Amino acid sequence: MLTDQHKQSQYLPVLALLFGAFVWGIIWYPIRLLEQAGVSGAIATTITYFIALIMGLTLFREHVRHARIFNGNAHLLFWICFFAGWANIAYILAVILGEIVRVLLLFYLAPLWTILFSRFLLNEQLSVQGYAVMVFAVIGAAVMLWQPGTHIPLPGSEGDWMGLLGGIMFALVNVLIRKDQSHSIQLKSIAIWLGATLVGLGCSFILATPLTISGINVYTWLILLAVGVLMFILSIVVQYGLTYIPANRAIVFLMFELVVAAIAAYLLAQEILTWRELLGGSMIISASVLSRKLNPIS
């Protein structure tokens, strides 16, 4: 019996990470369906994360206390909320505007930015090998972004830029979450959902075509509800997996997202990667995996 319980305790976190990676690998499709139905990325972000926020406030209401929020590090919770909002809106706009796998590869430059933010915000110093990994990731991005006739390899579309920006903001949020040890996971999750809701709402007034609630049909509402519930579940499930799986193993399971996204993009959007994207993407993935095995110098 103990052996079975031990196996279960090992399998459940792995299954949680694989489930999270699978959902993130296909979540772009309903988001694109919403865009086609007239619900822009900004509005979809607002509604879906508002659903997740309401669920979180309902289930974790005991954590929402003045003393728990304003405990001397409320500013960190504010910045988590702010940058998480921009990370999520950038990700959703990226998967609408760009090629799915290409966007995700740019997003997976996040470990590079994490190294830089950790140096300035957490005072972590890397070894020579750590900086070598950074260079490897940059070269991979350059290979993927380079186009004939250009001197500097830069993102070539709005989707590319949004994917890159989303990865930067995602890395910053992760470092801030690590820095903030005085707030619970539940409070930080609520901050993320709140940030995505507020930033999405602000962008809706700037980027989105006006849309009334009555203009959304039942089928579209069901998609919005499903995505909102998935956003809530993903936050909880992935955090559970990361709690019990070492980071250097967890990244291997999370990379399953790229496999799912590549297959889904081919089947659902007829997207095919070029040789430069395959080569550069392989270097970015390798750098992401290696970066999880490097410990900072104390």
From TrEMBL:
Tell whether Transmembrane helix is among the UniProt keywords: yes
- Transmembrane ranges, per UniProt, are 12-31, 37-60, 76-97, 103-122, 131-149, 161-178, 190-213, 219-238, 250-269
Name a GO CC annotation attached to this entry: membrane
**Per the database record, which ranges form the EamA domain?**
14-145, 159-290
Q: Which residues, by range, are in coiled-coil regions? A: none
Q: What Pfam families does this protein map onto?
A: EamA
Keyword Transmembrane helix belongs to the record: yes
Domain of life according to the entry:
Bacteria
Which keywords does this Swiss-Prot/TrEMBL entry list?
A: Membrane, Transmembrane, Transmembrane helix
Q: What is this protein called?
A: EamA domain-containing membrane protein RarD
Q: Which organism is it from?
A: Nitrosomonas aestuarii
